[in-house]
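Renewal narrative, Specific Aim 1. Our central claim is that a sequence can be written position by position from structural information alone. The example that follows is taken directly from our test logs and has not been curated for this report. It begins with the structure tokens describing the chain, in the order in which they were read.
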């Protein structure tokens, strides 16, 4: 009977301590922060509790359970009862461990509310918040260690804390259960606690950044920042301080001039806190945790330190940027504001007031940093001096020329700043200041005289005396910039060393002019860049709206009358895109000069109505080839060639050169350049380009550079996720680039503005539209142009009335295009039979040509994609479903055209390479010819039409292309003799080529669509051509070659006279299409498919081809001077680079 009673008691005890899987609903966070959702609270935890009370409660409950089990164990039970008790204890430990870790992370995410900005008693440059963070982490780690089975004394010893002793009364059984010896914790416990420990640290970092950019009143709910007044979160702070050594801290206060309501103060304190975390707090906590839990956290520690470094850089750069902007404004106004005539200025007698104003602004910064976080003084002033040196270089670089007095005055200003701030001049800043001397020297203009050298030396001696007097007069005002150093010779307030010698930098200030001729340098404003940068994370999809956004921005700038160009940067090692697979990279776009580029350049040409060259596409291969060629020629004079500065300088030089090349019929240099920087931040391939753009923003100046960030915001279960965007902007800032504009959906703009540190007006609210042609109007409505005009000061660029009128006309035409597109109801259906239909980007230009032509014909385009290999006989047995679907699409083209006049069809066979799918294309061409279905063959499609006609009409059995069947008995398509068979890259017949219509071809539909012209120009990309030996046989049967090359040897246009529209072009007319001026060949194809070809031919009598700029003969890639074929362009007043 005793055994039955014991068994019943064990059953009741097990039931009492059963750990249910149901949960409490957590209380929502009090503030609208972006931290992750609060995890559910287990039922055995009080619903209203924090991490501290949670630990106390669970330790007490576990202690009671262990005591009960120990008492029963003394009865020496056997069988199922004993085993059940053991399992119950193990299950309780694990569930309690989960609960502690959950509460740990949950409270860590809102721990930032305890930041009252009180100084640490031992180090006033940081806040007491860090002491609270360390205590919180230790307390939870000790509690987790004890729940897992470790002793309290051992945990305190390993974690370096005695704060948990207050809870000993709640854990007597726990403390004695292991005889206070070290234990090996189960692996699952180690992993669980380690994850919570790291998550807590990351949550603290999130909180640090959050409070730095948030008003203290909003975070603390009325707690006075720095005054110790309790608010609605005071109770929370007290509760979380229980047992962690945080109670009773003395409010030492800060100096009265430090007001943490000022965001600059908060940023400085946060940067100081991050520095202390990186150097002291985190290493100590990590070491203690690894010792207690016997884990190796090497990789996790490195990642954590990297995050701290990135946050530190973001915050510090933000502070420096704001402060440097204030001082930069003073310097630019003083140098370029017109108060000084640098050419006619008299000899200097004192430093100009604007220099004093700039230095006094730095004094205020020094005072603010010293009172807030004194260890940051040297770092802050060093960074500011670097920024201001670059500003001064840019400002003096914009001065057209200096006379003797102006040259001496500018030298006095720079040297005064140099010596006053000498303790904070880094090597980089020193190099920039020396560049200013060089810039002034190059712009120094004076008619040479026999005594020029002696006169200049005499003037420089007088300049030294003026400098010494100015330094002596301001010694006290700028005393704060001096920093005692025992290793350095004492320097007097006059700028002299203790031995009486003049500062060595002043002795290096000299200017030379070349004997026998004037020294006159004409300087203009540097290019004004506007950079498009997409920095996707690994989770993002390709091209998230980047191309239409960049192109639409350029179009809007053209509507204002600006000349716009574009550059695409691709960080792959290929020289160009010519040898890339279309199914991996998309379409290879061919330019007038024969350049094979990324398809984005086609987008720019279509939207901007410009003609770009191969140099508008920059690749890593091109840059490295240029640098290596320079090194081989000895241009670097024996220096060690490195990525920085030689590769980055080559990138910047390339951009500046190409940005000034005319790209339209005006023949004038562009005023805005759009740069699309591809790749992913953090990739090795794109690192040199990101660094080059970072340097470039200083090279051209703040007012000449704007960065627009386009990022994907994925939708998961209907919720927009902004973390990829936040992370990409964070990484981008860590690399030195700060976005000026961010494009995102409307619902997340405020969130991104808050957590990515961009103003609301800098976040463009965009949404999906029915057509990409609406994007320019959408961006204009969001204020993009207004922002850019203000940001880049575009209103200073002169535009005559004619250009403004053309811009207004362009906007009107674009609005009409979009409105007309939305009102299209009748459809035209096109069957596209291709080899690369798995990636529709392979035919981007073809699709755009069809769209432009269908809009011109008043039809809504519908494309049916057919994989050419699915039409071949083998597919009927291997892929019967795909075979029948493909043939149904092809065969119903004629039926649709007959039965439904408002819906029509045509068959298009585009270009391609290789034998795969060619028999299917031949079958499609045969169907179109026999059934009188409109057909257009482009490049390979042209050759397919010839092969099909030769086989089935001419009777040449086995006729084929030498590319596809080397042993064919009738090679109607052959390899062109002058093209290399071994080197594939850039060796095809490429670029803009003429086509001459033959005599007596006035009937030609293609010729009529081109306005009846005798000669047309289209771009080519092919290696094979029609065999001249078969031309007469083919033409005798009715397929006429109406267009040939300038020598009449190459067949370039083929047509059937007795067909509604059966045409083939060896060229690629899709590369020259424009939304407002469609390609004539495609326009005729769509018109024939829609049954309106005669009307369109009538309209095309007034057709005017796109006006093209004059292209250079050789590529600019290897040109280094005008003698080598480079286009020489006069500098423009302002150039904006996007």
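The sequence written for that structure reads:
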């Amino acid at each position: 009977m005793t055994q039955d009673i014991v068994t019943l008691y064990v059953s009741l005890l097990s039931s009492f301590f059963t750990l249910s899987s149901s949960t409490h609903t957590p209380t929502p966070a009090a503030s609208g922060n972006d931290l992750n959702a609060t995890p559910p609270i287990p039922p055995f935890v009080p619903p209203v509790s924090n991490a501290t009370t949670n630990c106390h409660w669970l330790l007490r409950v576990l202690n009671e359970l262990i005591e009960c089990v120990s008492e029963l164990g003394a009865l020496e039970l056997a069988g199922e009862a004993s085993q059940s008790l053991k399992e119950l204890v193990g299950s309780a430990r694990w569930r309690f461990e989960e609960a502690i870790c959950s509460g740990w992370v949950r409270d860590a995410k809102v721990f930032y509310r305890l930041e009252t900005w009180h100084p640490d008693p031992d180090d006033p440059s940081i806040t007491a918040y860090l002491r609270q963070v360390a205590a919180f982490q230790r307390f939870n780690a000790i509690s987790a260690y004890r729940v897992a089975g470790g002793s309290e004394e051992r945990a305190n010893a390993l974690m370096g804390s005695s704060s948990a002793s207050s809870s000993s009364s709640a854990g007597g059984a726990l403390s004695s259960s292991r005889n206070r010896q070290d234990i090996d914790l189960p692996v699952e416990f180690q992993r669980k606690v380690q994850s919570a420990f790291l998550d807590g640290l990351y949550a603290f970092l999130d909180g640090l950044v959050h409070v730095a950019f948030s008003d203290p009143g909003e975070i603390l709910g009325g707690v006075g920042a720095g005054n110790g007044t309790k608010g609605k979160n005071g109770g929370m702070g007290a509760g979380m301080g229980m047992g962690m050594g945080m109670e009773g801290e003395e409010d030492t206060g800060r100096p009265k001039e430090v007001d943490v309501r000022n965001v600059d103060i908060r940023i400085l304190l946060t940067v100081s806190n991050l520095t202390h975390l990186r150097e002291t707090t985190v290493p100590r906590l990590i070491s203690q945790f690894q010792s207690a839990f016997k884990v190796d956290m090497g990789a996790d520690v490195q990642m954590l330190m990297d995050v701290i470094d990135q946050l530190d850089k973001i915050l510090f750069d933000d502070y420096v940027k704001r402060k440097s902007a204030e001082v930069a404004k003073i310097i630019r106004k003083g140098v370029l504001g017109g108060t000084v005539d640098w050419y006619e200025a008299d000899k200097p007698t004192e430093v100009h007031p604007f220099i004093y104003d700039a230095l006094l602004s730095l004094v205020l910064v020094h005072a603010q940093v010293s009172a807030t976080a004194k260890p940051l003084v040297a770092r802050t002033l060093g960074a500011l001096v670097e920024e201001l040196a670059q500003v001064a270089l840019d400002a003096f670089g914009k001065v057209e020329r200096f006379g003797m007095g102006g040259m001496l005055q500018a030298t006095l200003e720079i040297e005064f700043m140099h010596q006053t701030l000498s303790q904070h001049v880094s090597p980089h800043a020193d190099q920039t200041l020396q560049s200013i001397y060089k810039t002034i020297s190059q712009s120094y203009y004076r008619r040479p005289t026999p005594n020029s050298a002696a006169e200049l030396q005499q003037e420089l001696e007088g300049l030294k005396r003026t400098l010494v007097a100015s330094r002596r007069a301001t010694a006290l005002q700028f005393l704060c910039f001096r920093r005692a150093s025992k290793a350095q010779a004492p320097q007097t307030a006059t700028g002299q060393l203790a031995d009486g010698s003049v500062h060595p930098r002043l002795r290096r200030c000299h200017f030379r002019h070349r004997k026998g001729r004037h020294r006159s340098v004409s300087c203009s404003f540097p290019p004004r860049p506007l950079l498009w940068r997409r920095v996707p994370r690994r989770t993002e999809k390709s091209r998230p709206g980047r191309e239409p956004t960049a192109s639409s921005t350029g179009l809007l700038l053209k509507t204002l009358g600006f000349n716009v160009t574009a550059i695409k940067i691709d960080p792959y090692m290929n020289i160009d895109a010519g040898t890339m697979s279309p199914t991996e990279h998309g379409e290879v776009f061919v330019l007038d000069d024969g350049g094979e580029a990324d398809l984005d350049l086609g987008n720019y040409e279509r939207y901007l109505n410009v003609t770009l060259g191969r140099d508008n596409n920059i690749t890593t291969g091109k840059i490295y080839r240029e640098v290596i060629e320079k090194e081989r020629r000895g241009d670097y004079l024996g220096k060690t060639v490195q990525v920085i500065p030689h590769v980055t300088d080559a990138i910047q030089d390339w951009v500046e050169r190409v940005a000034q090349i005319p790209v339209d019929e005006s023949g004038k240099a562009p005023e805005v350049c759009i740069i699309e920087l591809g790749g992913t931040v953090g990739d090795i391939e794109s690192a040199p380009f990101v660094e080059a753009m970072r340097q470039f923003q200083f090279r051209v100046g703040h007012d000449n550079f704007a960065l627009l960030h386009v990022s994907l915001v994925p939708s998961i279960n209907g919720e927009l996720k902004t973390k990829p965007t936040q992370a990409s902007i964070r990484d981008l800032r860590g690399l030195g680039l700060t976005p000026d504009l961010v494009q995102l959906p409307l619902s997340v703009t405020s969130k991104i503005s808050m957590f990515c540190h961009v103003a609301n007006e800098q976040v463009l609210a965009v949404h999906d539209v029915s057509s990409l042609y609406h994007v320019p109007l959408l961006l204009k409505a969001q204020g993009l142009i207004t922002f850019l005009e203000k940001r880049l000061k575009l209103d200073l660029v002169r535009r005559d009335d004619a250009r403004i009128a053309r811009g207004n006309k362009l906007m009107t035409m674009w609005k009409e295009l979009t409105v007309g597109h939305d009102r299209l109801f009748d459809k035209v259906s096109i069957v596209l039979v291709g080899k690369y239909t798995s990636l529709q980007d392979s035919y981007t230009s073809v699709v755009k040509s069809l769209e432009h032509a269908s809009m011109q014909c008043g039809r809504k385009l519908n494309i049916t994609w057919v994989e050419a290999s699915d039409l071949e006989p083998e597919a009927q047995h291997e892929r019967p479903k795909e075979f029948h679907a493909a043939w149904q699409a092809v065969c119903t083209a004629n039926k649709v055209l007959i039965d439904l006049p408002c819906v029509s069809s045509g068959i298009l066979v585009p270009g391609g390479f290789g034998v795969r799918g060619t028999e299917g294309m031949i079958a499609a061409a045969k169907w179109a010819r026999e059934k009188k279905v409109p057909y257009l063959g482009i490049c390979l499609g042209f050759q397919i039409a010839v092969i099909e006609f030769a086989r089935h009409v001419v009777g040449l059995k086995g006729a084929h292309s030498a590319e596809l069947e080397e042993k064919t008995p009738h090679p109607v398509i052959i390899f062109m003799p002058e093209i290399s068979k071994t080197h594939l890259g850039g060796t095809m017949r490429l670029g803009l080529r003429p086509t001459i219509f033959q005599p007596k071809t006035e009937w030609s539909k293609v010729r009529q669509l081109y306005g009846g012209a005798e000669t047309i120009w289209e771009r080519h990309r092919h290696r094979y051509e029609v065999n001249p030996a078969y031309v007469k046989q083919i033409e005798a049967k009715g397929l006429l070659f109406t267009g040939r090359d300038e020598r009449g040897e190459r067949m370039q246009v083929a047509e059937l006279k007795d067909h509604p529209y059966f045409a083939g072009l060896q060229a690629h007319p899709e590369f020259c299409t424009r939304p407002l001026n469609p390609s004539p060949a495609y326009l005729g194809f769509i018109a024939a498919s829609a049954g309106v070809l005669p009307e369109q031919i009538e309209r095309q009598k007034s057709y005017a081809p796109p006006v093209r700029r004059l292209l250079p003969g050789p590529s600019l890639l290897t040109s280094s001077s005008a003698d080598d074929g480079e286009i020489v362009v006069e500098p423009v007043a302002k150039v904006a680079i996007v």
